[in-house]
Amino acid sequence: MNKSSVKKKRPAKASRSASVRKSPARGAAVRKTASRRPARKPEPVSAPQIAAVQATTVTVTVAQVTALSPALRTHRFRVGQTVSYTSSPISRPGASGSYQVVRLLPSDGDDYQYRIKNPGEAFERVAKESQLELEH
Q1: Nearest-CA neighbor of 117 among 74, 77, 81?
Q2: 48-84 burial, b if ≥16 CB within 10 A, otherwise e?
Q3: What pLDDT, in 10s, does the model give residues 32-72?
Q4: Where are the chain's structural domains?
Q5: Over the stretch 100-130, which tens digit does the pLDDT of each residue have?
Q6: How far is it, in rounded angstroms, from Cα 20 to Cα 17?
Q7: The dihedral formed by the CA atoms of 92, 97, 103 and 107, expressed in degrees to the nearest 10
């Protein structure tokens, strides 16, 4: 028989849960030295330190916070309103005209966005609030 034709039996591999990992000797030495150090005791806090912390603590109410924050912006236009759309000079200049607001979209940085539709077109457009004006 050839050596290549003989099948050798290999020992079965142990499963991950059954195998135990051996930690390196260096890691064990580091852990032993770390456990031998005495625990640090917390330093006592003096009365002047407590008074200094209390003096710097500021109590703020919810009303004060909401008064300081800027008013939350909302969409200027509502669904169903007729608006006048002015396209930018980069996009198609013939797109300007009368449109109806179909859907309110989230803001794109500084401007809210709207989905608008012209009754004469088969598709909808996305326009920024700065490109729209209320039609009278």
Answers
A1: 81
A2: eeeeeeeeeeeeeeeeeeeeeeeeeeeeebeeeeebe
A3: 555 567 777 777 877 777 777 766 767 777 777 666 655 56
A4: 82-134
A5: 999 999 888 888 999 999 989 999 999 999 8
A6: 8
A7: 60
